[in-house]
Amino acid sequence: MQWKPNVTVAAIAEKDGCFLLVEEEADNLVVFNQPAGHLEKGESLIDAVKREVLEETAWEFRPEYLVGVYQYPNPHVDMIYLRFCFAGTCNRKHDKPLDDGIIRAVWFTPGEIEARQERLRSPMVIRCLKDYLAGKRYPLDMLNHAV
Fold it and tell me: In whole angstroms, what is the distance from residue 86 CA to residue 9 CA?
């Protein structure tokens, strides 16, 4: 049987020792997540993560590295996600409304994120953050988008 993954992108943005998260409504819960979302048809992974950060936080995001690629079987739905997590910087905040379902964008320290583990959207939030803090960085030029 052929498997078609749900490809998602996520962003790790650090500023003054804090990390950008979104507080959002998902599955009738209010949870925290890195700015993240689905890859759209015809879109590169880089363009997808820039778009998702802007839509969910109003920040312009400049990806600098790939932190990792994660396969996550969501136990709540019959779905497997393939998550590409990027690290980069947020340069400019726009005055624009956030995506539906997003309550707010927040900056938390790693300790504040760990203290909210029960309210994280998935284990991937902590996993990506720990990999970033461990220094995992891969060059963006390893990703190729055929046009």
Answer: 8
